[in-house]
Design a protein that fits this description.
Keywords: DNA-binding, Transcription, Transcription regulation
CATH class of the largest domain: Alpha Beta
CATH superfamily of the largest domain: Lrp/AsnC effector binding domain/regulation of amino acid metabolism (RAM) domain
Structural class: alpha+beta
Protein name: Lrp/AsnC family transcriptional regulator
CATH topology of the largest domain: Alpha-Beta Plaits
Domain HTH asnC-type: 6-67
GO molecular function: sequence-specific DNA binding
InterPro entries: AsnC-type_HTH_dom, Dimeric_a/b-barrel, Tscrpt_reg_AsnC-like, Tscrpt_reg_AsnC/Lrp_C, WH-like_DNA-bd_sf, WH_DNA-bd_sf
Radius of gyration: 21 Å
Strand order of the largest sheet: 3-4-2-5
Helix content: 25-40%
Distance between the termini: 10 Å
């Protein structure tokens, strides 16, 4: 594993990019008090080491007709063998599944699913889930209202040093 030293400018840059990844390097530089070229070099370094994985457009699901969000709990018949890997391969092909987490507890997986309607959720997603080999049970909760939804990661823990810099340990997968 490698260590990457992030200073207060890197942290401020990451905060700003999480708020608006479309900001120009000049706008970012003015915001965090660095030159455009320094911002560019820092962004390239943060991308190269994997801290910045990609920049995306965040769409409003209701404005594009995806009005139903479900949190779905999936339990497999067995917790070992190839069932888990098979489930994970199959679920990767479901465009409606935004997130899939392997978890401990009562369920084996938790999914976040978006659908246009309750019937779409039931017909095209949940029925397909039940057909995946090894699925024992499925339980879904329909989201009534989103109280908080963000993609911004907290970064306060990075800046907690007297020197103003913090080493971040990067794994080989980064």
């Amino acid at each position: 594993m490698d260590d990457l030293l992030l200073d207060r400018f890197d942290i401020s840059l990451l905060v700003a990019l999480q708020k608006n990844s479309n900001a120009t390097h000049q706008q970012l530089g003015e915001l965090i008090h660095l030159s455009t070229s320094q911002v560019s070099r820092r962004i390239q370094r943060l991308q190269a080491c994997g801290i910045i994985r990609k920049s995306v457009a965040l769409l409003d699901p209701t404005l594009i007709g995806l009005g139903v969000r479900a949190v779905t709990y999936v339990t497999l018949t067995r917790h070992s063998g190839d069932e888990g890997m098979a489930f994970e391969r199959e679920i990767a092909a479901f465009p409606e599944v935004l997130e899939c987490f392997s978890v401990t507890g009562e369920s084996d997986y938790i999914l976040q699913i978006m659908a246009a309607s309750l019937s779409d959720l039931s017909d095209s997603v949940l029925r397909r889930l039940t057909r995946i080999k090894g699925v024992s049970s499925i339980r879904s909760n329909i989201v009534l209202q989103s109280i908080k939804s963000t993609t911004e990661l907290p970064l306060d823990h990075i800046g907690r040093t007297d020197a103003g810099s913090r080493r971040v340990r990067l794994s080989k997968s980064a």
